[in-house]
C-alpha cells in the first residue's frame, strides 16, 4: 500500500520545526551561558584526571595551617587602606597601607555567619561611594546575603539571595565602575536545579548597593560552578576564574559577555581569588589547591591563553594596589608578590 504523500509532508514539516526549535534553544543557551568553545586543550573525561598545576605546593600539615587566614583582600580609600575577612568566620578587618606594609588592622564587623571554610564571609567589595559591601552565608536560614557596613551602626542588608548549600557556594563580590555590584552564585552541585530558567544557582548577577533586601538582581550569565574568584576592571568587564565542578575543567572567562568562549585550564589550581591589573592585560589568580599565583594574559576582548603558573607562593588571597600585587601565603601573612611589571615579565614554571 502506497504511503500518503500528505503524511510524508506533515512529518517533514514536523522535523523542520523540531530542528528550528532546537537551533533556537541553542541560540538562547549561548546567549545566557559561558561559551562552550575551548581555547585550551579539551578537558579530560573526569576532573580527577586533570594533573596538578606546575609547581603545586602541598598544604602544610593541618596543625601548621593558619586557622583564619585573610581572604577577599580588597583595596579601599584609593589604595591607602586594605579590607579583608578571616576565612571561615564573620570577622571583617581594615588596615592602613604604607607601601606594601599592612599597618594597625582593626575589626570593623563580626557578622552572624555559618562558620567554616565553605561558608563564612565569601566576598568583599568597595563601591564608587566608598561603601564596604560583604557577602556571607547568614546563620539564620543559611542564605547567601550581601550587606553594607556602616560605621557605628548595624550592617544594612542589601540583598538576600538563595539558600546556600555545603559545597560550591560561590559568593564572589566585585564593584563595577557604574555603581552596581557583581555577585557570583555557585551551583551547589545541583546541576539540574541550576539548569532551570528561574534558578539563581550557577549565575553571575548584579545588584544595586543602595537597594533593598528584596531587590531583583540583573542576570548577566549562567553555567558557572563556583564563582568565588571574581574581579572587574575599569571598563566594567566582569572576569571569573571558575573552580571545577562535575566533569568540567576550571575555566576563566567574562561573565558579562557569555557568548565569548571560556578558557579551560589543563590543570587544577582551585582559584580562590582573582585580581586584574590596572591596564586589564593580566588576570592574576591565587590557587587554594596549587599554593601558587598564576596569570592569564588577556587577548582582545576575551581571556586569552591558558593560565601560566608563576614562581610566587599564594594560597588564600590576591589583590592589586597601584602597581603592587599583594598575596596571602601559606602562613596566612599578607605579603608583596612583586610589581605588576615584574609579574608580567616573570618566566612561568614548566608544565
TrEMBL record:
Region Disordered: start-end pairs: 39-70
Signal peptide positions on this chain: 1-30
SUPFAM superfamilies the record matches: NHL repeat
Keywords: Signal
Keyword Signal: yes
Gene3D superfamilies, sorted: TolB, C-terminal domain
Tagged with keyword Signal: yes
Transmembrane segments: none
Superkingdom as given in the UniProt entry: Bacteria
Stored InterPro entries: 6-blade_b-propeller_TolB-like (IPR011042), TAT_signal (IPR006311)
Protein name: Uncharacterized protein
Amino acid at each position: 500500500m502506497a504511503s500518503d504523500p500528505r503524511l510524508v509532508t506533515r512529518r517533514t514539516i514536523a522535523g523542520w520545526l523540531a530542528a528550528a526549535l532546537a537551533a533556537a534553544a541553542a541560540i538562547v543557551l549561548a546567549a545566557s551561558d559561558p561559551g562552550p568553545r575551548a581555547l585550551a586543550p579539551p578537558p579530560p573525561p573526569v576532573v580527577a584526571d586533570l594533573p596538578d598545576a606546575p609547581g603545586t605546593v602541598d598544604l602544610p600539615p593541618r596543625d601548621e595551617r593558619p586557622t583564619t587566614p585573610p581572604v577577599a583582600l580588597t583595596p579601599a580609600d584609593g589604595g591607602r587602606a586594605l579590607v579583608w575577612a578571616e576565612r571561615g568566620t564573620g570577622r571583617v578587618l581594615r588596615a592602613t597601607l604604607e607601601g606594601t606594609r599592612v599597618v594597625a588592622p582593626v575589626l570593623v564587623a563580626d557578622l552572624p555567619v555559618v562558620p567554616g571554610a565553605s561558608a563564612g564571609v565569601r566576598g568583599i567589595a568597595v563601591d564608587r561611594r566608598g561603601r564596604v559591601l560583604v557577602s556571607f552565608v547568614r546563620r539564620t536560614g543559611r542564605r547567601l546575603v550581601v550587606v553594607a557596613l556602616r560605621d557605628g551602626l548595624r550592617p544594612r542588608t542589601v540583598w538576600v539571595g538563595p539558600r546556600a548549600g555545603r559545597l560550591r557556594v560561590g559568593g564572589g563580590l566585585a564593584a563595577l565602575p557604574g555603581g552596581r555590584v557583581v555577585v557570583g552564585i555557585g551551583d551547589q552541585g545541583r546541576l539540574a536545579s541550576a539548569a532551570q530558567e528561574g534558578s539563581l544557582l550557577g549565575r553571575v548577577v548584579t545588584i544595586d548597593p543602595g537597594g533593598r533586601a528584596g531587590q531583583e538582581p540583573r542576570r548577566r550569565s549562567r553555567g558557572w560552578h563556583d564563582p568565588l574568584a571574581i574581579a572587574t576592571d575599569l571598563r566594567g568587564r566582569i572576569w571569573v576564574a571558575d573552580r571545577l565542578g562535575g566533569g568540567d575543567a576550571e575555566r576563566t572567562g567574562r561573565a558579562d559577555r557569555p557568548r565569548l568562549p571560556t578558557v579551560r585550564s589543563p590543570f587544577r589550581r582551585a582559584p580562590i581569588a582573582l585580581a586584574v591589573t590596572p591596564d586589564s592585560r593580566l588576570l592574576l589568580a591565587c590557587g587554594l589547591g596549587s599554593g601558587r599565583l598564576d596569570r592569564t594574559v588577556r587577548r582582545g576582548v576575551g581571556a586569552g591563553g591558558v593560565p601560566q603558573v608563576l614562581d610566587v607562593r599564594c594560597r588564600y588571597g590576591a589583590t592589586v594596589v597601584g602597581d603592587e600585587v599583594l598575596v596571602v601565603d601559606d602562613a596566612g601573612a599578607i605579603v608583596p608578590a612583586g610589581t605588576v611589571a615584574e609579574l608580567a615579565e616573570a618566566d612561568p614554571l614548566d608544565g
